[in-house]
Design a protein that fits this description.
Layout lengths: L2 H4 L3 H16 L4 H8 L3 H13 L3 E4 L2 E4 L1 H12 L4 H15 L2 E8 L2 E9 L13 E2 L5 H7 L4 H11 L12 H14 L2 E4 L6 E10 L2 E11 L5 H25 L1
Antiparallel strand pairs: 1-2, 3-4, 3-8, 4-5, 6-7, 7-8
Helix pairs in contact: 3-4, 6-10
């Protein structure tokens, strides 16, 4: 472990836990938050009051929720992505072309992080939103990025986050994953066959920046529509073409 990973301020760590809990709960009062974090009401109240006074939270009656200050910070993070406009335009086009839900994601702290999402005419609402973090091994976005990483990077991700089962189809052992990675590299895309959410299939292609993996593009849809030739050929062509467009346009953006 690095020095940075072992040294932390407990007060700051707990403040982050409060923000994460409020995000997951969609807002909460003192009692609900204390129960969620397994702490005393007085501790929860002090943290909520501090974050409220610093304007990271807003209060409606006795309910606290995350405020727009966090949105402002997120906008600054987004603006650091040099080719964000290129990504947004191509993902919008992909959603229109397929009629499904299209997404772009990258890696941060060993997790898949969704940066942009667009829904086509028939696109279904998925659990992922901009900023959502997900495991690598159970998503097509994660697997296609992981397949193009070094063995050391792969081992570090697995050691840090494990290989938990999200559905009965989730691959949870390293050897099966490595076999899948060989196939992914050979065909140039990855699939999620109801491995993250039951009833949802997804296809993803990698986006490179030089020799480095920048992120990945995906299309998700209900398994009843994502099948046969459409799932095996049409959607893979769509996502690989979009990934290539982002790569090419990013060079000249």
């Amino acid at each position: 472990m690095t020095k940075e990973s072992t040294e932390q301020l407990n007060s700051v760590s707990f403040a982050c836990d409060v923000l994460n809990a409020l995000d997951n709960l969609g807002g909460a009062g003192v009692t609900e938050l204390a129960k969620k974090l397994d702490c005393s009401k007085s501790t929860a109240h002090r943290q909520l009051t501090t974050l409220y006074n610093k304007e990271y939270l807003v209060k409606d009656g006795d309910q606290y929720r995350i405020g727009f200050k966090c949105l402002d910070m997120a906008a600054h993070v987004r603006d650091q992505i040099d080719n964000y406009d290129v990504i947004r335009e191509e993902i919008d086009n992909l959603a229109v072309e397929t009629g499904e839900t299209a997404q772009f994601a990258t890696e941060e702290h060993g997790r898949v992080v969704y940066l942009y999402k667009a829904r086509g005419e028939n696109g279904v609402q998925t659990s992922s939103n901009v900023g959502t973090r997900e495991f690598f091994h159970c998503t097509s976005l994660g697997k296609v990025m992981m397949a193009n990483m070094s063995e050391d990077q792969i081992d570090e991700i697995i050691e840090r986050h494990g290989l938990p089962a999200k559905t009965v189809n989730t691959v949870t052992d390293r050897e099966s994953l490595r076999e899948a990675f060989e196939q992914i590299r050979e065909r140039g895309y990855a699939i999620d066959d109801e491995e993250n959410v039951q009833g949802l299939r997804c296809v993803a292609a990698p986006v490179f920046q030089g020799k480095d993996i920048l992120g990945a593009v995906s299309v998700s849809g209900p398994s009843r529509r994502m099948e046969g030739e459409r799932f095996d050929e049409e959607i893979p062509k769509n996502v690989t073409r979009s990934a290539n467009v982002i790569e090419l346009n990013s060079k000249f953006a």
